Please model this.
Amino acid sequence: MPYLYAMPETKLPVAFESQMLELLGKAEFEQFRKAINNTSRTSIRVNPSKTFSLSWPSTPIAWSKTGFFLEERPAFTLDPSIHAGAYYVQEASSMFIEHILHSLHIPKGIYLDLAAAPGGKSTLLSSYLGDEGMLIANEVIQPRAQILKENIIKWGLGNAVVTNNDPEHFGPLEGFFDLVLVDAPCSGEGMFRKDAQAREEWSLDNVQLCSARQKRIMDQAGALVKADGYLVYSTCTFNEQENEDMIRFLTEEFSYEPVRIPLDAGWNIRETSVDSDGKTFYGYRFFPHLVEGEGFFITVLKRSAEAYIQEPKRVKDFKHPYLKEIWNRESSVLDEELGFDGSGKYYTLNDSYFRISIDWNLHFQKISQHMSLKYFGVELGKKQKNDWIPSHEWAVSVLPKNNFPTHELSEAEAVEFLRKNDLVTDNFSTGWVLMTYKNLPLGWIKNLGNRVNNYYPKEWRIRM
Ligand code: SAM
Model:
């Protein structure tokens, strides 16, 4: 099996060894120890809404239709396709969520990813929802929320809202969501192979701290799921305090039903069960000596049919400190100008136009009243007199850009464009031109005749 980076072998904390010995037994613990001193495999998840054909040698990931292990780790930064949102580099175990969604036929609707940065699981949820739902991708830590926003923009589906809030702020959204995912901050035992710092920072005290923090988060999250909706809780750690104990806590606090995930025996994912509230609940552990992926734990619970459901109410006169709703007549003009089909609702924020799906407008309005918005739908750009200044966000989104000419770049030219360097090609159409690489939109240039301006966002440019 080809691996690229190996962990220097460091001693494991003694208390961690005892904990794992108890969980695995002596013989299996030795296999576990060997596995975490091996190297990790690189894997990517392809964006099904963008045109991309995988050219690296790869093997499919068993539980994901869009996930692939790569034989070698490419220089991702220098691949223009990653900047176009054609794929996301993600550890394989996390992709199991794709199997959960499909195998349980989880209804689409309004989803919340409460601890979402950098956005691996959010991009997966966004693809699952497509045109049939809206995702609220939330991250409490501001700089991490910025990275989340960037990844959501690149993924480009336009069905997500990025917020920057503490779980406590979600109080007014009780019973609002069809699915809530909490990929909790944890003690990171499952990352010991990839991340030497995770080994160094581990202690029993830290496990207790993480478990207490998870309880605080889940005490909020458990109430946000509507009747018959789903709660998905995951960690990248093995211990029971952060996993089984959280199932106990949730099922004692709220009324949830068990959900069992169908598994293929060959995947070697280990099912665990918790008896609580007179029922048996299930959790799933991914051990690195058994599965091809990092350490992971996940459980799915279904909110009881009697729980509360909060439907957003139509607001007669939508008021917001900085969002302005665009009314029907102007919307039709925008649809016409921009080549859209009338399924969008428009807002302006700081003179820039944004578009979300009209089907989720009431949900969006409710979210916008309570949360700190970082991004929503697709930012389209600004209107200057009768001219559009199209935004980069629109360029990399899946929305049509029919009114603009495109120009296909070679790989070398695409990298130059992404570095925000001047492009030497002189056969551009005049005005705004959409740069593409292998037909994937990368961003805009504006050809003024005597000069070509590169509009790739400065803060996103390739610096290597
Ligand atoms: N779901 C992400 C993904 O797949 O890319 C990874 C999430 S990471 C395991 C956990 C996240 O929880 C981090 O982004 C961290 O900043 C955030 N976090 C830290 N403390 C938190 C808290 N008290 N409440 C909610 N989220 C928190």
About this structure: DSSP finds 13 helices and 23 strands in the chain. Confidence is low (pLDDT under 50) at residues 1-7. The pocket of S-adenosylmethionine is lined by residues 94, 115-121, 139-141, 144, 167, 183, 185, 213, 217 (CB under 6 Å). The first helix runs from residue 14 to 24.
